Amino acid sequence: MERQIVYVLSTNYAGSHFLALQLASHGQCASVGEFHRYRRPAATRRQACSICADDEQCPVYRGLDGVPQRQLFDRVFANVQAANPRVNALIDNSKKPDWAALFLGLEGFRQRYVHLIRDPRALVRRWMLCYETPAAKAKVRRLTTRRCWRHGWSVLRGPEDNVYVHKWAYQNRLITRFIERHGLDARVITYQDLVQFPERVLGDLMAWLGLEFEPGQLQYWTVTHHGSQKPEYMKPPKGGGKFHDLRWKQSLSPEAQQRIPVHPEVTRYLAEMGVTMNDAGLTLHPEWYAPARPDGGGRAP
Which of helix, strand or coil describes residue 30? Predict the structure, then answer.
């Protein structure tokens, strides 16, 4: 079977690690974490593997220093297939399209792209926590104004949540335009669909990759994953159930919760993508969330 590279593209804090780990828990897949770290010189690069003593002892990353950028995936495939010859797909959780763009047209690989979209309300909450000081808030406001110059006055003078809504729309549009401009083999999924219906979402993605969904992918913490991983994702969910992060409902002001769903940038982008917003997040499949019919005959029409 041909070798494949799957790039997970998203904003920060969209759940990309969660998705990448589930994909990489398939017996024919392997994680390379946030592989974009290898664009930096070795002297300034952070260690790429979270679980090995150093990268030269890592079965995934060893021997990469000095390898030309366009040959990095060849070397990693050689490393992982030495340990598991069944592996035919690498999962790269670098998130940003500028990294994936460096490998367009790479010979010897089939390249695929998954665009993961998270509820802007969740991202607004998370970015409010990231930019805590007045200086940090002013910096992100200025940067977003430059990037979203058509809406510059609104970004500069509007409420804080408005800044992060524009940041969310800008970053997701970069991914959408990258995929469309190059005619890439891509899929769009939402965080809510992945969390609430993982078997359906992962089953569809694995079929797209020419593989069969394996139930063990849902227990991704039982698999050893090299690369840059978040420690909290390497533990089973508390109580053994699904964890759907809805902390924005407690953190965002009632005014922000009312503004964000009707923000022009949100409604316009979601309409373009065919995504629906509900009380808990974003979905491409609103019929999955329809209430059961009173007669017990399945979903209401």
Answer: strand
Residues forming beta bridges with residue 117, ordered by sequence position: 190
- Name the CA dihedral angle for 135, 137, 139, 145, rounded to a multiple of 10 degrees: -150
CATH code for position 207: 3.40.50.300
Distances (CA, A) of 156 to 10, 147, 253: 25, 12, 20
Q: What single-letter DSSP state applies at residue 102?
A: T
In angstroms, how far is CA 145 from the centroid of its own chain? 24
pTM value is 0.93
Quote the tokens at residue 69: 């950028």
**HSE-CB of 100 using CA atoms within 13 angstroms:** 27
Enclosing domain of residue 162: 120-174+245-289
What per-residue confidence (pLDDT) applies to 297?
Answer: 46
The rounded distance, in Å, linking the Cα atoms of 144 and 155 is: 7
pLDDT of residue 300: 39
The total of structural domains in the chain comes to 2
| Contact by Cβ (8 Å): 73, 90 | yes
